Amino acid sequence: MSGPFKEEYWKAAVKEIKTLESMDVWEVVDRTDDMNVIDSIWAFKLKRFPDGMVKKFKARFSARGDQQLEGVDFFETYAPVVQWTTVRLMLILEILLQFKSKQGDVAAAFVHGKLENHEKVHIEMPLGFRQQGKVLKLKKTLYGLRQSPRAFWKYLTDAMVAAECNDKVTAVAFVDDILFWSTDEAYINELGSQLRKEGFLLEEEGDAAGYLGVEMTKTEEGLLEMKQTGLIDRVLDALGLDTKYATSKWTPAEGKPLTKDETGEPPQSSSSYSSVVGMLLYLAGHTRPDIASAVNCCARYMFNPRLSHEQALKRIGRYLKATLDKGLILSPSGTLKVDAYPDADFAGLYGYESNSDPACAKSCTRFLITVSDCPMVWVSKLQTETALSTMEAEVNALAHCCRELFPVIDIVSEIGKTVGLETDNMSTMHVSIHEECQVPTDVRERKPV
Q: Which of 141, 208, 318, 348 could join 249 in a cystine, given CB atoms 3.0 to 4.6 angstroms apart?
């Protein structure tokens, strides 16, 4: 092991092995010729707080799940995780109903799940702790195994259902990161105590002030502001815009469409275009809907970026630099209601891209779904099919919006009734489609080669 933090990572590795041994995850057995022994690896990570400060050094002992054979040492693998749509809904209800909240993290989460009786898994001993002629026979799941997420999800849900106060606490989980809500903090503490009795290494971290890299701050007015300043700092650093001399911009994109620019100059920056776009997509999908359209345009050219695309990416960075202290504010109205606003840009690239390029006839879908007047779901992306009229483009956008809207309506109605909050009539829908477009509509006759 080498590097500036080798001592910190080695201490984390020793702690990881002690934790796994204390939880009786494996037994050491002799290697035999008939064993299908999977390789093991170490994964080291520097975890940070949402503001970018160092949180802890993490060492994870993992199995090479890519060497497993379906039907031999693993079977079912599906495990659900919470969507940010549900998280934002619960944060809205927290404001409306004055819920108490807590955040929890399950240490060594996947090793809580148990292997099925018909699953026989053997792995190599960890590097740095190996013994000649010995391998590990797993009793519980381990990070890297394909069935580990499902095994932990089943273990967690069974424990939640068995808890006596499960009807008084609402919990959402993204793998091992859990958020709890209840009308009384005592119910959350009671549930945490019961989970610890079941063997969970649950670490409670107080109020929900940060979840999956998103800072959540309550204002003096009782509202909730969501930011990702740490991620923005990393974006600015990757783009070389972290100095005070970088020019700020007050709009994330120019007024004209961003095209392929196949004959343009190559990028000049040494930063990874796709890496920056990935960070911006995470940012736009969680706390910054104002950059969603601009980021989507840049994401179209991840595999062959040109200088113009790099400049568009830097403009988004300059806009974020100018609005670094801004975030998504949840200020719900008094009624639990759902509204959706779909729209479409018919053949937005027509006249900018080559007429022989099918992309020039693509329309763009954009929509916003709000709950109690708070943004909950927002999308800006090209349509997969080519619309032949403005009406068809609008209907395609409406259909895409409805695919997101109906599950939102269901979960809002269900949770609203559970917590005793009156909901508006959600069985009606008013559709208004405008046949107004200044773009030429001869795509029906023009067939791209």
A: 318
